[in-house]
Amino acid sequence: MKLFDTIAGMGHEQLVICNDSSAGYRGIIAIHSTTLGPALGGTRFWNYATDEDAIIDALRLARGMTYKNAVAGLNLGGGKSVIIGNNKTADREMIFRAHGRFVESMGGRYITAEDVGTSTADMDFVHMETKNVSGLAGRSGDPSPVTAHGVFRAIQASAKERWGSDDLSAKTVSLQGAGHVGYYLAKELHEAGAKLVITDIDTERVKSVVNEFSAKYVGPEEIYGVQADIFAPCALGAIINDATIPKLRVEIVAGAANNVLLEERHGVALEERGILYAPDYVANAGGVINVYSELAGWSSARAFRKADEIYDTILKVFAIAKSDKVPTYVAADRLAEQRIAAVAGMVRTWPQWPNK
Length: 356
What we know:
Number of strands: 12
Radius of gyration: 20 Å
Order of helices and strands: HEEEEHEHEHHEHEHEEEHEHHHHH
CATH superfamily of the largest domain: NAD(P)-binding Rossmann-like Domain
Distance between the termini: 39 Å
Helix content: 40-55%
């Protein structure tokens, strides 16, 4: 692996390799960009096959956070950290306190939060060593309602683009995943009058959505072939692929799941089938908005108002896609890059004295 070529090619500012043998800690912190503000991105705890896999994952995720934060209109750059190891271990305090010390050593350039394999309890351990952490227990609370509201607004915007109206009362939505976000999204869709078709591997979750929101249940593999107007993936990533695209019988794909396109070419494949795709990191930005609300001291109501803006952001993405004649996933990147470039080009009017 040509490390510096890789970092330069992906546009990263910094990569930090961290080790504390006494704590059993091996970590990587990747900062992609601090143009808009300190780099925010969660800590992923995962048993990677190789160190190289861990580095690539950190770099890829950090870059994704830059674009997500930028397109959400937040004053945050993008970063990510990964801890290599078994995330089921019960001995967590020293691992995460060690991580907190390395986060603190970044001098505020990086702010972490929970992610795959970590929890608010783990972030409390991190907080023992640094203030540069968000997603703490008892602070901003469960991000699921805010995330779901943003996805709901993305679905409304997609409907507006496709059918000229964001009224969902005559639409059918096939919803993959009835977890926290899926549940709250189902609630909003039901209140808007949409008919729901739901799947999840957890039968208790399915029962809740079926009973409370008059949803119809189908098996996990059947969801792709459901005749519906909108497909809302809210579970696994990489589910838009060569096997599933031919099965889709919808006009819109818009959901909360991350990285739903297995490869970028699958975004093109959706376009070729005439299916409108709301890029996932734009639609699900309510999660990072909720984290930012904790950092900025916002109320819950203000976080929901910010998530409302996803409606207009999605419409901007569609407008760029049409004007530039590019797929929507490319248009989303261009919208993020426009904001980053605009902020980077601002005239600095304060005296540039060295810190003393």
